[in-house]
Amino acid sequence: MESFLRTAGIKLTYVPFGGGAPATNALLGGHVMAVLATLGLDASRMPITRDAPAWFHPGRSGTLRLGLVDNTITDKDLAIPRVIASIARKAPDVVIRIAIDTPEALIAELGNGGIDIALWDILGKVTGQPCSKLWGGPVRNEVRTYCHLGGGRMEDFYETPVDNAKRFADLAREAVANGYTAFKSMAVPPTLPLEGLKPVRTAERCVAAMREAVGEGIDIMVDCHARPSPAMGLQFAKALEPYGLYWFEEPCWPESVDGLAEVQRSVVTAIATGERLVGQHAYRPLLEQQACSVLQPDITHCGGLTSARRIAALAEAYRVSLAPHNPQGPVSTAASIEFGFATPSYIICETVHEDVPWRAEVVSEGFTVEKKGRIVRPNTRPGLGIEINEAEVRRHPFQQEILQRVFLSDGSVGDW
Q: Could you tell me the pTM of the whole model?
């Protein structure tokens, strides 16, 4: 396999990249380095170690370590699913650890996902084909994208008070001025498991202001971030239904499948969920109970592109749309877009474009984005079509984003 890499002319490197969940980006940004380890290229002398604030415990720190031992992959294992299986078989002491308590399944899938994405990229580069052609060829001519209000600036997206409807309207106009035909907002305030009309009416005024600002030709998504209980999520969904949302996202925890199903049955608005689920099997109950109209697997959480393709097949069988969760860096975005070109049920790609001012400087991309409409044209380069400018990356060391903490009206801790 080492000779295979040399023949392919592939240089593997660790690329730190800010944005999104630190644990995710530590692995995804460095996914090619993880592949170096999995291919048996002296991983013991090239460990991946990354100090990063813990995603699930804001303010506490931990060390992310990935070590893979005695796991040389042969050319026979080139097919991506077999590579992952081979790693599991030959490296029983794989260590993917954060030095605090986090969901073990998620951490394991982060490792698998990063490796899987990188291996597909390598396979495409070796064969000289964009990954979409490895998956049967493009099924569409373009991929639509949407943005967050504020373009990815967490201060705007997460910290604009919902009672400031005018600011939401201004940010909505800004998104449209930047060429987008769809955007997502956090227009639902955190609530106790049951509250009266005040938060519901606040959310309603906020969405009404955005709709008035951009008209009916622009699609608006509202993300609850799984803050509400099923009871409150249902109230919000019904109150916002007249505004023609493109979708209403995570009205309650994804584990509350019965609650999601009740919300979806009660409104014509499409309910979207799935970003927090791990592994392909977690999506089946959502489909069987018709609990949503849009599945949102995170390609970096669900097990990589291989697992995402299987989830997409499930969604296609139920005629449920797919819109992967992707408020992340350029590697993840390239993977989502390439996946979208080859996936029939894929409807739109989540993007952040102004999370850091130097985002476009650290990578070159094989796909093109048209400013009007923010439509993506197909990648013309092998693999995921992305190349990383290592010199530019070194100019931007990791910096912690704004930590999110939510306290409810009675002082209890809420989901941010």
A: 0.77
